[in-house]
Design goal:
Helices cover about 35% and strands about 20% of the residues. It has about 290 residues and is of the alpha/beta class. The protein is elongated. The relative contact order is 0.16.
Length: about 290
Amino acid sequence: MNETNFPESALVLVGHGSTQNKYSSQALLMQAEALRRRGLFREVVVGFWKEPPFIAEALGSATSPRVFVLPFFISAGYFSEEAIPEVLGFKTPDSGGVTRVVRHGQQLRIYCRPVGTHEHMTNVILSRAAKVLRDHPFPRVPADRDVTLFIAGHGTERNEESRKSVERQVAIIREQGRFAAVHAVFMEEEPRISDCLKLARTQSVVVVPFFLSDGLHVREDIPVLLGEPERVVRERLAKGRATWRNPTERHGKRLWYAEAVGTDPVLEEVILERVREAALWPDMPPSERP
């Protein structure tokens, strides 16, 4: 991926956030800080839907003549395509959809597509899977052909895109033929995360949570769904420890549970790819392109 500088531009990263879980915003803050250190943008600002600084405040604080707003979300769903664009002025009742490039006074504002739907998210998932095996090689790192890979998503009947984003990644990785099997599992839809060990036909199982933050679902809910007692999970959380021990033996199988995809260093490049893509859109004035 080529390095492109945006010295006259601001990058505003917007995420969901949470008032109940302090880990929910950490992945976004980490990616923002990594991008600041590279000095590619004049400004890198963060904003959240559920916690301060809020998204409208974040966008308003950017003073650069050109501002890229990037939704730090897994799917092109309600928040990234409806709620946030409406609040930030990229969607009006009569627009019929998201207007990706708008002028606000002397400032050009560009609304990027969600980070989680980029094609390179496949590399992020594979990076997470490889890292958890490499970091916990007990008794040794299994060959990919002996591993069943599960990509765990939220899933919801209220938004089909939530499921599609996971299934899209499963199809891509399955086509590569590197793992014994690749499956999608969900918190709120079938097949369930709790069914992983029943579905796996190999002794080695890797579960990658397709979530951008190590928040409530990743640190608490999914470990319990994978069979860890809720009491144990809460005790480990209270002590600031990981809520899953890699690998854990259950029902004659060995299960590794990876970190959320939003904490992977590869995601930094995916963010930049989304910005580069937006900078070349047809409705971007030629004078504003990199």
